[in-house]
Request: fold
Amino acid sequence: MNKPRLYSGMQPSADSLQVGNYIGALMQWRELQQSYEAFFSVVDLHALTQPNDPAELREKTRRTAAQYIAAGIEPSKSTLYVQSHVPAHAELAWVLSTVTGFGEAGRMTQFKDKSQRYGSDATSVGLFTYPVLMAADILLYQTDIVPVGDDQKQHVELTRDLAERFNARFGTTFQVPMPVIQQDTARIYDLQNPTAKMSKSAESDAGVLWLLDDPAVSAKKIMRAVTDSDGTVRYDRENKPGVSNLLVIFAALTGRQIPAIEDEFAGRGYGDFKKALAEVVTEEFGPVRARALEMLDDPAELDRVLAVNAAKAAEVADATLADVYDKVGLLRRV
Reply:
């Protein structure tokens, strides 16, 4: 029997992914690829909505792909490719933009937030149509589920609306996907500001655990992580955000339940707890870091793997796009 399909992607917006990406996305993807026909993309076209140095964007794209693979996204099991290597993404986005209302695109929360922050003159049309390209990413592969964080749920809901609208207007064409939202307990916060989500764009590097950090650097960041004066290793998101954040990281990387970790460190200080967490992070990230750096030392082989996977993705995507072009009445080239 054919497996149900899954699509997800991540922008190449930093030299290294961080622990939030690893726990919130990569660990989930690694498990899901066992039971789904999975398509994972480095969404470099989306990255163009922010200013980039061209050479740096190419390097970040390779580095992101290498970290996908090093973290367990296996190109032999999943289709892992670079978004721009499959032109159907941009082509379908144009068709979908013609069935997207200006008002509904303007109501997307992320666009409203960013356009208010930067002003209309500094906000590109690409940022406005970002959710339509995301819809194309998903619908090209007749996707059944889309694992996303809360911040992307609205975009998947738009994708569902566009699929249903297109199907109603032109006949059944797209699978209507379902979002799979990560659990709130898996959300990772900044080590120095544990009320803010850990982010590649954090104001201070001290609050971010990067996958490619030297283990000694990661350990130092953990030992300096903000906690509180209570001294008790206990989960309480409201009153003990720093300790709670560290507990979530510990639990996610070890597969243990938070109450069991609390029991282990009952009566012990934060120093012991942080030291143990630093060892957990080193043990988990060490092999990932080594494998990613090994692949980056051989960019030609990494590019070959990505090209093979892009061809696999294009085979599926082009079939969907051809059907869409027929449905909307575009004349086939002979």
About this structure: The chain has a mean pLDDT of 92.
